[in-house]
From TrEMBL, chain A:
The chain crosses the membrane at residues 7-26, 46-72, 93-109, 115-132. This is Glycerol-3-phosphate ABC transporter. Keywords: Membrane, Transmembrane, Transmembrane helix. It comes from Paracoccus methylarcula. The keyword Heme does not apply.
TrEMBL record, chain B:
The lineage of its organism: Bacteria, Pseudomonadati, Pseudomonadota, Alphaproteobacteria, Rhodobacterales. It comes from the Bacteria. This is Sugar ABC transporter permease. Gene3D superfamilies: MetI-like. The chain crosses the membrane at residues 70-89, 96-115, 151-175, 196-218, 259-280. Signal peptide: none annotated.
């Protein structure tokens, strides 16, 4: 009963998250009769939202919801990985995100744009962190 | 008695979460938004992608400021941590002198940062400042306005004067928590003063030292007001640390995009170094 209500709650949170993503795409402004994907979502607004930055935060919010659901649904004990650190899933997510930011910055500094190679390296790094750290 | 566990208790954190969202998360989101756009004022923004990040990473000016900042933090930690421990070890443990020392140590911490800067700005002046004037009378060449080394020494001594008390008070609190039985056992074993420090006092102080190192690192890495008031980042750019450079860029030049990219990289560096410090020191603690 408890687990059903938990799954239902997080299911609703997931649906709200998808609805927000959909709503964001509807807010993209038009330019020369086509969608300007990097245009301002709130022209004149002080927060200066754009779709790419909104999606960036939406992905992080989605990850936090997902990891909270996992932590409640199947609690885990910290484990010791190759670095000798006691880590939980949340710690590994933090290490992955922080390391990924630096991988992308280093890619920008050494290789420059585009960043796709850096993103791929960051994903591989994140997978390695979750597997071995 | 078994404690009841109810995950709904997490909802009690909501008010704090809302407060943090308004004071930290929303401003941070705004900085991320600015870092990928350009503006000429009037809240009109134009997409710039990751150009500002590339510009900041390749900027010689920012690299030089980062180098100065790392050097400054390293010197500050190398002086303040041992000195704070030394002062704490030599403070009276009880009685009226203990209270007197505590008040005396707390005084520099109560002075606002810009006032500390002003005190040292006047103190170091060669025409009217007590320090500058005395050094000149002693025949020592000292002028923090036009000599980079003098400016660095002034800023470092000022920071040591201002913040060593914090380390000392934290260490003192750690020392006070050690039961007398430990010292009695060491006396029976005829342990030397060094061994008492190495095997009793230092391990017991490790928790507070972790906090002291983290606080002093983060504070020194983000230092702005004191050097700005004393030297204004000069002579030349000799004491232009990251925060001073960032404010020049964001407020002086109104380059919001590059300044936002710069502050995000700055934030990530602080986050990384703090995480490494914390991990290393808690691992050492677990090992013991």
């Amino acid at each position: 009963m408890m687990r059903r209500s938990l799954n239902l709650g997080f299911g609703i949170a997931g649906l709200v998250w998808l609805a927000v993503i959909f709503w964001l795409t509807t807010q993209v402004p038009m330019r020369d009769e086509s969608k300007d994907w990097t245009g301002s979502l709130d022209p004149g607004g002080w927060m200066a939202w754009t779709l790419p930055t909104a999606l960036f935060f939406a992905v992080i919010a989605g990850l936090l919801i997902c990891f909270t659901w996992l932590a409640i649904r199947s609690p885990e004990t910290p484990r010791k990985g190759v670095l000798g650190l006691m880590t939980t899933r949340g710690d590994r997510l933090f290490i992955s995100l922080l390391g990924s930011a630096f991988i992308c910055l280093i890619w920008l500094g050494v290789m420059g744009m585009p960043l796709w190679g850096g993103v791929a390296a960051a994903l591989i790094y994140a997978a390695a962190v979750f597997r071995w750290v | 008695m078994e404690k009841p566990v109810n995950n709904r208790a997490w909802f009690l954190v909501l008010p704090v979460l809302l407060l943090v969202a308004f004071s930290a998360i929303l401003p941070l989101m705004t900085v991320v938004n600015y870092s990928v756009q350009d503006t000429f004022g009037g809240n009109q923004f134009f997409w710039a992608g990751l150009d500002w990040f590339e510009e900041v990473i390749h900027s010689d000016r920012i690299r030089a400021a980062l180098g100065r900042q790392v050097l400054f933090s390293a010197i500050i930690l190398a002086i303040e941590i041992p000195l704070g421990i030394f002062v704490a070890l030599n403070m009276p443990k009880k009685g009226i002198w203990a209270s007197f020392c505590l008040v005396l140590m707390a005084l520099p911490l109560l002075i606002p940062w810009n006032v500390v800067g002003t005190i040292w700005q006047v103190f170091g002046r060669v025409d009217i400042g007590l320090l500058g004037y005395t050094l000149r009378k002693l025949g020592i060449s000292y002028n923090y306005v036009n000599n980079a080394m003098d400016a660095w020494i002034t800023v470092i001594v000022m920071d040591v004067w201002h913040w060593t008390s914090l380390v000392a008070l934290l260490c003192y609190a750690g020392l006070q928590s050690i039961p007398d039985a430990y010292y009695q056992a060491a006396k029976i074993d005829q342990a030397s003063r060094w061994k008492v420090f190495r095997y009793i006092e230092l391990p017991k102080m490790q928790g507070v030292l972790l906090i002291a190192v983290l606080l002093r690192f983060m504070d020194s890495f983000m230092i702005y007001t004191e050097p700005f008031v004393v030297t204004g980042g000069g002579p030349g750019n000799a004491t232009t640390f990251l925060s001073i450079d960032l404010v020049k860029m964001a407020v002086g030049q109104f380059d919001l995009g590059p300044a936002a990219a710069f502050s995000l990289i700055y934030f990530l560096v602080i986050l990384l170094i703090s995480f490494v410090f914390y991990t290393v020191m808690t691992r050492q603690k677990e090992g013991e």
